[in-house]
Amino acid sequence: MVKLSACVIVKNEEKNLPLWLECMQNIAFEMIVVDTGSTDQTKDLARAAGATVYDFAWQDDFSAAKNFALEKATGNWIAFLDADEYFTAETADNLLPYLEKMDKNKEVDAFFCHLVNIDADDHNRFIDAVQSLRVFRRDEKLRFIGPIHEFLARAGGPLRIMSMEADVEIYHTGYSQTILKAKLERNLHFLQKIMAEHGEKPWYYGYLADCYFGLKDYEKARVFARRSIDSKVKAMGQESAIYRTLIDATALAGRPLDEVSQVIQLAIDKFPQMPEFVWSKGELLFLEKDYAAAEKCLQKALEMQENSQGKQSSGTFSGRINFVYCTLGKIAFLKNDMSQALTYYVESLKLYRYSEIALQSLYCLLRRLDPADGISLLRVLYADTKVDLQFMVRSLKAYATDKIYLYYVQRLKNKYGIDESIDLSAEGFFAVGQYEQAAEHSIAVVKDAYEFMIMEIVEKYDEQRYQTSQILLPKVYRNVLDKFLGRLTKLSAAEQQIYTAMQHSFGKKNGKDNAKAQFIDLIKNLEEPALASSMETEIMSYILRHNLSAKEIYDWIDEAFAEHKVKPLIDLAVLFYKSGKMEEALRLLCHSYGQNRENLDLSYAFAFLLHVYGDDEGARKVIQKAPVQTTEMSDLLEEMDAVKNLQ
Prior knowledge:
The relative contact order is 0.04. The longest helix is centred in the C-terminal third of the chain and has 25 residues, at 435-459. Helix content is 60%, strand content 10%. The chain is built from 30 helices and eleven strands.
């Protein structure tokens, strides 16, 4: 009969260890916990769960601690997982029957297990999967070697390993962002210390590449990944991982796309059966705007993955299929195949619903539908939980005037008392059935208009304006105006309240000048990165409340920013665009472009928005009239050509 000894070495693992203990209680006949100096509740938790706890003085040597644990074990098989690893509940019961079957095969010492790295801080998001040695016989000839990144070895001969054929899966949470940096810094310190004492060895290169990549030093990661590949040293069960690191590090280090392409092809040649490298090629082709070739590559990667279903494989592709569908959605959108784009975006979000890019891309299509239909589709993808509702509201703030968005804002407030609403329009409140708020907002807008008219007349008085106001203003506001003009000395209580409030808000300055000053202050805050996000919605609210025209906005910015006006004008146009007000964005840039045709940034921004609006002919004309064709303009022309060829 198989007896499984579950072993682990720990130090301050009170957060991770409970899952390990819960898992092992169900399959192991003994649990050996070797503690190397915990100061938290780790040892108490282990003892309470029935584990035998041993203290071991840390010696800067993982193998020494692990071998100490092996000496304490009494079972005939060992499961040696880290404290942040555990057999999944769905597959743990498959382990013992498999070991029972394989126990008589004395030609096997150890098994590679399917280990999945997940990010526990991001809804258990899949990162990648590897084959890792975690289960082996208890044998005095089997011991760990190496102070860090230790590995199991057999004394007097090669270790006899095979991949575990049973459906057994291990989850590893050690790559979660909250703990990854400290772990990588620790590992890098150990590696540097060992190399200083014993010299640089080829088998360290892969580990160094992993450390530097995780610490975002992509150039060093690229260098060591290349050295590892050139050294021909292989990490058992993880042979393709170093190629993934090389590709990503080369791209993130900002190396030329040609170099990235060469590295991807190197990986494809080495591992022609792995879809993840074909996917990488497709993504690169998309960046190069070769959309037709990108589509073929991405489809091929999906076909390769489908053909490999049922096989446990290493690599990152299983956790990146959502990106494939998202990029295919973008290509379908460029082809004007909105139905297919919708299908791809939905598939992407089914695989990972917390992708902001995929949700925002889908939402751009849903805005074309009846709001009820859009909400119905989103209900299929997202639950009515606080996490899901907050994610949606925060991801879609750029569309703060939309009915679907406002529905979810109100849903979050009603169910969980979380108010992330943005007061932009009466229409928005009306869309979600908040009729009292809609009425209050409408009254506030009308009140602003009356007060604006009064202050305009006070500062720039002429008789014709005054007579017009007598027709448009209610009696209460006519009396307030006459009070400002000195034609009336006594007001009713209600009129006096309005008069006092206007004095407080506007003083005796011109209302228009004050509105302009407030608007310019908001625009200046938009230039501050820390304030930009919160200012965007406030600016849109201000523009809508005061019904500012494109010409008015241009004139105010021209006066306030003079020769530096182009950037705030473009920023405002982008803000209009993000808020779904494409025509207003075009109107502003059209007016700005008419006054500043020589400005290259403005020309490009105007051409880009025309292209997005579907007027490629107009975009080409703007670029042709530019004094110089910039790289961005050339890229835009290339993209328009690529889209034209795709269609």
